[in-house]
Amino acid sequence: MEGFGPWSLVAVRSVLAAVIAGGCLLALRVPLPARRHWPGLAVVGAGVVLGFPLLTTLALETSTTAHAAVVVGLLPLTTALFSALRVGTRPSRTFWTAALAGAAAVLAFTVQQSGGALTTADLYLFAALLVCAAGYTEGGRLARVMPGWQVIGWALVLCLPLTVPVAAFALAQEPVHLTAHSVTGLLWVAAGSQFAGLVVWYRGMAAIGIPKASQLQLAQPLLTLVWSVLLLGEHLTVAAPLTAAAVLVCIAVTQRSRG
Q1: pTM above 0.70, yes or no
Q2: Is 136 in contact with 64 (CB distance < 8 Å)?
Q3: Residue 142: what pLDDT?
């Protein structure tokens, strides 16, 4: 966001990731998915390709990366809930207790950081949790019947008719400051976060199940806090690492639980 506006960043990263994914699909001559899979791919595209990146980017205009990272720590619980509703998974009581404890720690941190009230950034982040959890759940379900890289690949390609014109319009309207730092960041979120990361993520969800895989993401807040300090020079409050440590304890419990 040092060099691109929020709409430009989301649209351009999606277009670049779709070019990479589409090239792989063409090179390997992957046939089109069956018609019954397209609604699920549309959910993945709406949640993971468009909704989550846009909503978190809008939140980061007024929120720090560290704050956003801990709020996103609610995503594992949200995904587990979506999985129970959509796929019918039934994790154990120990699993749900640990997942709820991690979520409670995140909520307490959010309210404390916001002075007792939710901010606009928090509303963006909570909306992002809902759409991303739906995309993760649907993608994890599809990854049982097709390779994970094809799930995110087709979802990215499916979004091209929307992301290309939005990218062109946003680049014309929002200020762009091309620096080595901003261009490197754009390439990383396109090739790494938007495509390669989701390739292995969906493969993992198919291998160990959506609920347990979702809880591994409780480690994301701590990792993001570390990188926000090292790469962005942000300063953490005492509450941020303590909250991240609490959710790490919860992740250990969920992975040892049944289901």
Answers
A1: yes
A2: no
A3: 92
